[in-house]
Amino acid sequence: MHRIRVFVHLLTIVSALAAGACGAKQTAEIPYSTLKQHIARGNVREIRMSATEVQATPTDSARQAGAPDLWLATPVPNDDLVPLLESRNITYQGIKSDESHIALILGIMTGLAVVIVIGMSYKRLNPVKSMTALTRGRQRARDKKASGKTGFDSVAGVDEAKEELEEIVKFLRNPGRLRR
């Protein structure tokens, strides 16, 4: 039980640290046309682009006016955004497609941790290794029947057989004593 508690505490700490490392930025998803309007007004300091997403960092004055830390937009195919960016002297760059996969890794680790905890709790409830979930009740019934011991005191009504068995046991323990 102590190991499970330690494991759960470590998992909680790792999850909290990973969530803090991801950095929760305030983002707003806006239409592509609105993004172009922000660029034309001079509200954008930097742009990062990929085939599926455009990330725009607002200027300090736009942030003071209530803009989020980051604007997100889906680009329109065959649109010439680059000439507009260059005419406004806005820094732009591409987005690497293999960015950090922290969320994916944390999801996999959390899933594995849940499976391990369930397995450990099942093992604790079911200590016999060869027992399966379907035969658990029958196995316990067999174990209770087999646990009783049968001795000479348990035999009733067979005194002659009991005496003969006692003589055989005495002979086997000390064969020289009973020779004729």
Would you give an account of this structure?
By secondary structure, the chain is of the alpha/beta class. Helix content is 52%, strand content 12%. The chain has helices spanning 2-22, 32-41, 60-64, 81-87, 102-125, 136-146, 159-173, and strands spanning 27-29, 44-49, 54-58, 70-73, 91-94. Strands 1-4-3-2-5 form a 5-stranded mixed β-sheet. Strand 2 and strand 3 form a beta hairpin. Helix 1 runs antiparallel to helix 5. The chain is rod-shaped, with a radius of gyration of 39 Å.
Map the helices and strands:
Blueprint: H1 2-22, E1 27-29, H2 32-41, E2 44-49, E3 54-58, H3 60-64, E4 70-73, H4 81-87, E5 91-94, H5 102-125, H6 136-146, H7 159-173
Parallel strand pairs: 1-4, 2-5
Antiparallel strand pairs: 2-3, 3-4
- Find the CATH topology of the domain at 25-108: Signal recognition particle alu RNA binding heterodimer, srp9/1
Which structural category do the helix and sheet elements fall into?
Answer: alpha/beta
Q: Strands of the biggest beta sheet: in what spatial order?
A: 1-4-3-2-5
Highest-level CATH class of the domain at 25-108: Alpha Beta
Instruction: Show unreliable segments.
Output: none
Helix/strand order, N-terminal first: HEHEEHEHEHHH
Largest sheet: 5 strands, mixed
Report the portion of residues in β strands: 5-15%
The total count of helices amounts to 7
Using DSSP, what is the number of strands?
5
Kindly report the average pLDDT value.
76
Broad shape: rod-shaped
Span between N and C termini?
66 Å
Task: Report Rg.
Answer: 39 Å
- What is the correct CATH architecture of the domain at 25-108? 2-Layer Sandwich
What is the share of helical residues? 40-55%
